[in-house]
Write a structure and sequence with these properties.
It is a single chain. This protein has 369 residues and is of the alpha+beta class. It has 3 domains: 142 residues, no CATH class; 89 residues, no CATH class; 57 residues, 3-Layer(aba) Sandwich (His-Me finger endonuclease fold), CATH 3.40.1800. It has a 7-stranded mixed beta sheet. It has a two-stranded antiparallel ribbon with strand order 8-9. Helix 2 crosses helix 3 and helix 9 crosses helix 10. The longest helix is centred in the middle third of the chain and has 17 residues. The chain is flat. The model has no long low-confidence stretch (mean pLDDT 90). The structure holds zinc ion. The site of zinc ion has 8 residues, from strand 9 and helix 16.
Amino acid sequence: MKIELHEIPISQVAEGYTESEEGGVKGYGGLLDIRPPFQREFIYSDSQRDDVIRSVKNDFPLNVMYWVVNDGGMYEMLDGQQRTISICRYIQGVFSVDRMKFGSLTASEKERFLDYKLMVYFCEGDEREKWDWFNIVNIAGERLTPQELRNTVYPGPWLTHAKSIFSKRNGPAHNLASDYMKGEPIRQEYLERVLEWYSEYAGFTGKTDDRIRYCMSDCQHKSDAGALWLYFQNVISWVRCIFPNYRGEMKSVNWGAYYNMYHDREFDAVELERRYSILAEDEDVTSPSGIYEYLIDGNEKHLNLRSFSKRQKRAAYERQNGICAHCGKHFEFDDMEADHITPWRDGGRTTPENCQMLCRTCNRKKGGS
Ligand SMILES: [Zn+2]
């Protein structure tokens, strides 16, 4: 069974959409059979149907869909029928949502709707596999997470061993690391997280989903998952070694990504703790878990530094009589941006005395706030 994730815009899926007694339901330029024989009839309630349309309009994610790739470049919909029919019928003007039909949307709203990308897994396999799939995807009751799905594709002794470590409550990985990461082992969130890290460490590249699958395919026939387990223990030991003083915020840090990049570098745990305490008391720092990331890679963006309030900006604007502090020209309030006279990294804080207004061009030249 071969499975690939594709992003397909609604415009393509709805192209050539037809619905009839004899011809069935077709889309994707006639290549997609939206209601193959094994599929249920359209059973969405109006409110479920409307929620699908609202999700697309708001650019909220829909669950992944599954299409089976058949010989001759034809597709059958394995899962996603009801959402797809809702979307296509809406475009055809069959119903309105919030009293608006598709035809009465503005040109740009229509365009945005049609550009919305559906996440579709293309599945290639024989009849038997197709049926197994259908059973897993539709009848299991609960939706599969992406990692649960990957587990069904790469079974073997390696995966069995990995799951015995990473996929149990109070299993070895959960006991070791539940203070340092979020997630539910049973829903494969630990396994997914460690594979996300390990695949990168092992040199696989690409989007996370691709990277994890390449890595799983590479490991599939190994007799055990010892290397993965050892790697995971190293990540956690590294964290404990450089930050021995535990804080709850540590749960939110994506530790493996930092381990992969910085595990060869020397860190001074005492010095890091000293700097952590100072940053934790700094009122301009609004992301406590970001302090860890900042201490490792030095990027201020992790700290989510406080910006000036509208009131502080107004006060500075009035004080300057609308004159840009750099180029000396006059600007309207809305055309100016607040700037720290002394930057945060040099000890300047987000206080009224340290605020000046610059025109956009001067602020860009100075490099942000
Ligand atoms: Zn200026």
